[in-house]
Amino acid sequence: MDGDNLWIGTYTGGVNVLNLQTGTFKVYRSYTDIPTSLDGTSSYAIFKDRSDRIWVASMNGINLYNREEDNFIRIKNLDAMTIDIDQDTKGNLWFSTQGKGLFKFHPEKQIWKNYVHNNTLPNTLANNQVNCCLIDSHGEIWAGTMNGLCKYNIEEDNFETIPLEIPSHNICSIIEDQHILWLTTTKGLVLYTGRRLPGIY
């Protein structure tokens, strides 16, 4: 939500903005000859940060809405589909991608960093298909991947895969409720309280 406007990402139909007061739609599309349009026709993640900036992720890259001009700034081509966005306590934006791991971006410093899985190195992401990212109420950063739940170690600047005895390690989404994490997986719902053997539903 942005005021009375509900931003809706679509598959191949651009971004639709519904004004809840008037019931009218405005559609933003991608045009190859207009560099201030979206960089792709599909969007699976839209996020408003703490500075009220609206970020739109396409199947290609990241776009920033320009409120003054009512158009978009194409920030970066990630060459991957982004399906989730969150912001940490330091202002970094985290982009979860399908196949390229996690991207961290600080808008003011204009610094990017990519976190990926590496079989030869410890403490990397469990998989490069990252389905979701959550910054919890304590500021901890969690990533749900196709092959497990990962937690960011801010001091070491790397990720630890959390050992869990669950039917499926394909974590689809994460939400927090009273400091407890709920994980949706391809084989049910998991209640994670920090124990190796969580509640399974």
From TrEMBL:
Any one Gene Ontology molecular-function term assigned to this protein's record: kinase activity
Family matches, as Pfam families: Reg_prop
InterPro entries recorded: Reg_prop, WD40/YVTN_repeat-like_dom_sf
Classification via Gene3D superfamilies: YVTN repeat-like/Quinoprotein amine dehydrogenase
UniProt keyword list: Kinase, Transferase
Entry superkingdom: Bacteria
Protein name: Two-component system sensor histidine kinase/response regulator, hybrid
UniProt source species: Phocaeicola vulgatus
Taxonomic lineage: Bacteria, Pseudomonadati, Bacteroidota, Bacteroidia, Bacteroidales
